[in-house]
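note to self — DONT lose this again. spent like an hour looking for the file last time. sequence + predicted structure for the chain T wanted, 465 res
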Amino acid sequence: MVHGQVLGARLAPCCRSLARAGALRSRAAAPVASTLPKAARHRAFGSTPRRFRERVSSREDDSTTAVNGAEPELNPAFADIAFAFDIDGVLYKGQEGIPGAREMLQKIRRQGLRYVFLTNGGGAHENAKVASLAKRLGLENPEVVLKDRVIQSHTPMRSWDQDIKEKGTVLVTASQPERARQLAREYGFKRVVTPADLLAANGHIYPFAHLRDSLHKEFSPLPDGKSAAAITDPYSRDIPSDALQIDQILVWNDPRDWSLDIQVIHDLLVSHRGYLGTISTLNGDRSLADHGWQQDGQPALWISNLDLVWKTEYPVNRFGTGAFLHALEGVWAAVTEGAAPLRYHALGKPSRHTYAYAHERLLHYDADVPEAQRAGRRQKRRPLRRVYMVGDNPESDIRGANEFAPEDGTKWESILVRTGVFQPTRAEPEPRYKPTVIVDDVVDAVVWALQNEGADVSREWLLSK
């Protein structure tokens, strides 16, 4: 797997920088914590207790946090810490909010704590995720508590180089392709193609009628008058001027028609320079690296997240985008006879791209909250000492936080909750990627973190107004 290797996309300066890019208090540890090995709970923590005094809000109404809508007063004990919350399995399961999650978020907002929501979900605008989260949690003030804090798996694409967005042609596949196309355009991509567009332009691409009248019934003409049927000899290099060329393949979230999507992605990965209908003469050349596969200017393949499973109300975990990737890898291994791994880039957790993007958002947090935007405040950088990642999936949330080491020296600590993907079994009593601590739920996670910072807080306090 070579998802960390950049194969073709040129990223904007901030995104390029992303790609480069103590002991607990003497009293007993918080009772919410699990009994992980002592070393796992005590690594890299400061030992000085920090004074804490709750700020008394001028109003008790949850829709505001200070007089005249001013930004909440920052509790000095929390000035250099922040939280990153996963969403599915941490704040809600399916359609039901985790008990206490709403009150917890309102409380830390009133304390002026920095936080973002870091989810591998996607396929819709970030504002749609805000609305969905607000509905599940029963929040009446999402503009204050949630807005401009949601980072989805594909959100870092907003920072891609304008040349890619304006001059390149991208193929987007997703659970709802038409919605994904509109979101890609909102991100700035000018030429966006879906598998349904290709199927409508050349019915021979996929010789089955499956889903043509449902999932693939919405389509658009190919950009710039290009054709999906211009090439008839796949080995000819006399490329017609109207032949469609794809520069990037973006798998945004949970594709629905795996068969069509895998077929089209395969066709582009074995093509000559991304021209649909061609076949590279380098494929299978044993004198070349990876026997010539993906060595002929094929489009870069981007996978929005690697989550094999995610948590819903159903008792057994459900497959996610990572399952689609494994299916694609299996087909690729058969096509190449195992001679070359599938080359792709990964976004979402545990990708460094995503954690670096979230870290930058937290460092420049003031400019992301509505009050600062209304005030026209210039973006400023507020240093961090520690960020607590609260997640339910050891393979993405915990692994990503454990492996991320930002250049500014901020320590990311991982907290695993028991309300989501990870459930201990006889075969796997502990997670493969060890968190700093395991707690029952997101409320206990925040209590544990604040206690670790020296604050004398409790679950009852966190859930109070």
